[in-house]
Amino acid sequence: MAGAADTPPETGRYRRILLKVSGEGFALAGQPGLDVERVRALAAQLRELTSAGVQVATVIGGGNIVRGAQLHELGVGRATADYMGMLATVINGLALSDALEACNVPTRVMSAVDVHKVCEPFIRRRALRHMEKGRVVVLVGGLGNPYFTTDTAAAQRAVELGCDVLLKATMVDGVFDKDPRKYADAVRYDEVGFDEVIQRRLRVMDQTAFALCQENDLPLVVFNLNTEHGVRRAADGERVGTLIHN
């Protein structure tokens, strides 16, 4: 895609990636809160990528701390609940930044909501410059507006920053024809087109995010964050999880 780095990395298929990590990826299975060891393990994989010359941005969820949708169901106003969720992503982003810096990987945390004491504001050209200099850009605060998911924020930022691919790290092994947690005979797709996802009504991400990827011809890889070296392998172009493209 236009805007990606002109010099390819030493290894790997993609030169500039955006990694979307859900809040659950920062916690132990079924538990709320922050698991520092899981964050450090992710930081180690991102260090491998930056060492190989891959430019990396990440969009962080906050579901391990606050889920805006759940708060809304409990009676909290939707806009307020979403803002609370955005602030939760700031906490996770700072944790990832600290883990990366401990690995000697330079980072910049950039927020769509104004928390200038701890984060830079998101400015597209500044984010691009950070990535070109080899810094991991940790994007928090969603899009800064309620009623949008972090999936939409990830798709939006990936397009804005000219990324070659959007890597969506989840707690399942890819895209299935039905929920693998409920049906033992669920079949995983290795590769599928955007149109087929729509026709089969496969669950990938919210419609706004999915449309952004499709309309801008942005490949999407859905994979399990718990896969050994999954982030690095997905960025290297290995068939990890499910590849969705036009």
Task: Please explain how this structure is put together.
The protein has helices at 36-51, 68-73, 78-102, 124-132, 150-160, 194-200, 207-215, 230-235, and strands at residues 16-21, 55-60, 107-111, 120-121, 136-140, 165-170, 175-176, 188-189, 191-193, 220-224, 242-245. Helix content is 36%, strand content 19%. The relative contact order is 0.16. The protein is built from eight helices and eleven strands. It is globular. The longest helix has 25 residues, at 78-102. It is of the alpha/beta class. The model is unreliable at 5-11 (pLDDT under 50). Strand 1, helix 1 (36-51) and strand 2 (55-60) form a beta-alpha-beta unit. The strands form two sheets. It has a nine-stranded mixed beta sheet, with helices on both faces. Strands 7-8 form a two-stranded antiparallel ribbon. It has a single domain (16-245), classed as Acetylglutamate kinase-like (Carbamate kinase, 3-Layer(aba) Sandwich), CATH 3.40.1160.10.
Lay out the secondary structure.
Layout (H helix, E strand, L loop, with lengths): L15 E6 L14 H16 L3 E6 L7 H6 L4 H25 L4 E5 L8 E2 L2 H9 L3 E5 L9 H11 L4 E6 L4 E2 L11 E2 L1 E3 H7 L6 H9 L4 E5 L5 H6 L6 E4 L1
Parallel strand pairs: 1-2, 1-6, 2-5, 3-4, 3-5, 6-10, 9-11
Antiparallel strand pairs: 7-8, 10-11
Specify the number of helices. Answer: 8
If strands are numbered along the chain, what order do they take across the biggest sheet? Answer: 4-3-5-2-1-6-10-11-9
Distance between the termini: 14 Å
Q: What is the number of beta strands?
A: 11
Helix and strand content put the structural class at alpha/beta
- Rg from Cα: 17 Å
